[in-house]
Fold this sequence. Notes:
Distance between the termini: 29 Å
Radius of gyration: 24 Å
Number of strands: 24
Strand content: 15-25%
CATH topology of the domain at 278-491: Dipeptide-binding Protein, domain 3
Structural class: alpha+beta
CATH class of the domain at 278-491: Alpha Beta
CATH superfamily of the domain at 278-491: Dipeptide-binding Protein, Domain 3
Helix content: 25-40%
Number of helices: 15
Amino acid sequence: xxxxxxxxxxxxxxxxxxxxxxxxxxxxxxxxxxxxxxxxxxxxxxxxxxxxxxxxxxxxxxxxxxxxxxxxxxxxxxxxxxxxxxxxxxxxxxxxxxxxxxxxxxxxxxxxxxxxxxxxxxxxxxxxxxxxxxxxxxxxxxxxxxxxxxxxxxxxxxxxxxxxxxxxxxxxxxxxxxxxxxxxxxxxxxxxxxxxxxxxxxxxxxxxxxxxxxxxxxxxxxxxxxxxxxxxxxxxxxxxxxxxxxxxxxxxxxxxxxxxxxxxxxxxxxxxxxxxxxxxxxxxxxxxxxxxxxxxxxxxxxxxxxxxxxxxxxxxxxxxxxxxxxxxxxxxxxxxxxxxxxxxxxxxxxxxxxxxxxxxxxxxxxxxxxxxxxxxxxxxxxxxxxxxxxxxxxxxxxxxxxxxxxxxxxxxxxxxxxxxxxxxxxxxxxxxxxxxxxxxxxxxxxxxxxxxxxxxxxxxxxxxxxxxxxxxxxxxxxxxxxxxxxxxxxxxxxxxxxxxxxxxxxxxxxxxxxxxxxxxxxxxxxxxx
Length: 529
């Protein structure tokens, strides 16, 4: 016990020194007038966040850091609807399929340069024309036919065909042409030294200490945040986040359900419980020989998994069972897609129909092959590991071997049969397009289903909201019949903050890894006594 206490004390000293030094390091002085004292942390939010190695919206898509450093033509409001941001307003001409954005005048990049329409043109041309760009979000922009600046504050973006989700994709953060033109966006040093137009300004990234330091953007074009500084700790291990909160080394963190439960009713802390669209699933890699031969036997696995037990045990009830990838989306939730109740008798009967028989060891086999597959699970994500362990035990009891391989980082080329996945469709349901369309830019597992391709393509180009909802309901059923993954559960977004933090708004539905908590950070207030 004394040894553990000494370790915790040592960690506390090291982390606190990291917070202090992050604002006093070489070349990282804060703008004049923003700080009373370099070591004054009274108005500094220390956030125990996710691991990051890139801060560039075009390369990585949305993340907490991207959302507060950069801003887009549009942004999401509390209900998840896109509203004007860098654009003060916009029009859409149905005949020419052209969006015209009138930009806010006088907006400055965080290095003091003037933001103009040319930056918007540059950003969207990179997303649509750069053949070397490696990004999972590219399919969001494939319907853009042309982008041009009419003048310094006006941009026209023309589509090749109608795209119902396009306004959502105009929320992407704009990147500066004057700093990036001619560079390889995937490898640019800019990705570790970002400059945006958003609410907070990047100061320094201490890779060794795992600290990204930010100061509020005093020249931000909209409401300037109350909180002066943010120290973003890139923390991988879930238990470390909980320890940081407990020891006073962090002011806010997303915790798994079990760790969050320990803070409920605890003096000095507040629990913030968000709804998320974040689900966990056993996702199959369709490049693997096992699934090439046994694709017909994925859906039936659902019958052998007691998903309620997973929610109650691993998530302590903070979530719900999953049957659809867009179950919590306004366009989803088709109960006709809920095809697989927990039913071991049904599982055995369906396995028999598929030609599987149990061997002497109790494991199913077919054509001389055992029902044995390997999935990778990141070792530092305790909740995923726990989910995988429970599912593995249930499947083993039913006659299927799911082998867990703990890894530090997912490796899509190492020959695994899948991974314990997480994903979210929190805004427009078209977000599923790039993940499940054949050869989609986010389709890492190479899923391919012609029926799904057809439905998602129709839905993307359909104007009527009711018709789109009907199409996505059909997608849910088609996907359930021939799934890319075995869906397990949706997670609540369990955040814990110190009692002196005010402002996080739980009305917003959050995304994967509960990203989006800082959507209204300009309204937050912090009081440390």
